[in-house]
Design brief:
Helix content is 37%, strand content 14%. With 436 residues, it is α/β, with parallel strands linked by helices. A 7-stranded parallel beta sheet has the order 3-2-1-4-5-6-7. Strands 10-9-8-11-12-13 form a 6-stranded parallel beta sheet, sandwiched between helices. Helix 5 (92-106) links the parallel strand 4 and strand 5. Helix 4 packs across helix 5 (92-106) and helix 5 (92-106) runs parallel beside helix 6 (126-133).
Amino acid sequence: MPASATKSLRVAVLADSDTRWKWGALTAQRLTPAAAEVRLDGYLLRGRATPTARQLGEVGVRADSLREVTGVEFLRAMTEEPYDVLVIALVGGGVQAMLHGLRAAWGSGRRPVVVTGYVGVVYEKLADGLLLRHGADLVLANSRHDADRFRAVYEGVGADASSVTEVALPFLGGTPYTGGHDPYTVVFAAQPSVPDNRRDRTYLLNRLIEHARRHPEREVLLKLRSKPGEHTTHIEELPFQKLVQGKDLPANFRLVYGHMGDVLDRTDLLVTVSSTAALEALHRRIPTAVLTDLGVREVLGNHHFTGSGCLASWDQLDAGHRPVPDEEWVARQGVAADGGYAGAFDTARERIARLLDRPGGLPPLNPYYTPETAPGYLPGILARHHLGPDGVPLPGAPAADKEPGPVRQIVRRAARGAYRHGVQRVAPVIRRMGEL
């Protein structure tokens, strides 16, 4: 980045969950040069998955400021604060709404470089999610495989594909695996919504417990994403903490929380259905197994790992099998186990530098979806974020000019608690009744 841009940079990150804050904040760090003096401001979009202080702390990124906002409040802040780079780490519909809202708010005036992307493996809703992200200056692809797919989608609908920029997942790293730990440690990386039913989740839990019984010399860990009462990116109706209650657990079986990297520091075998943790483990050359017990299916996401050499069943793992990854597949997935990770964000940094130095500033944001190209789809997406078809806030849109008072905070916590109760207790009961 030119010397003029390395003196001081102001970066904002908008996120709506713990995993997206992790991706957005770490991406912001990777996108700015080490020599720059960077101010990072975090904005947390108010909703069901707004992260707790513990979840934020687990990421390990310290923001200079951090506040919870509504969508409309965020748009107003973007007209009042002069940023150089904005990273939007939201679900696809949220990205699209903010792009239209920012286009209306900024007009043709000075604006920051806008960056967005995905927090992990893209195994579903490829076209839908990508087109909802179109309009950002940079749409980050976490691997060569993704970059090729992203460009094909954009070019296939006649949209500008120049925004697609290959990088890597921003949270890869850690000491490469060199050998066994004492005791040998098996870690199962749980996912909030994969699988999504009690039978399959109970099956996985029972097999993990049985593995611990079969191998009393091993330590077997169930790595959980969130503690009771917390929400993450995906809705977790059947948390493993609940399913494990009342079971006779062997002494070498434990539930653990915390930073995934810290858990991988002591892992000898990482087991999952399709968690991005598999890529973190492969990056460190930790033996990694992607389970086939429930089938290799798109709904599970493990189909993404076909060709990886990592697919295996619990029967095979119980018998001592350790998968050997296919090096070509690993390289195409942005897993730089060969040491090339340090340069993974160079192209993105260079692109941002050129955009910041563009004479006359940047043109208005130009999403593919408009009231003309998607008149039956876009207005509903914008309305969910209290924006009209032109991206302007609707009358009566919720916004707060000051920190909520104690009564409002209590009401908000109660509402979130009621939401979690409905998701984790009422909804499963209704579903079971419907299956009678």
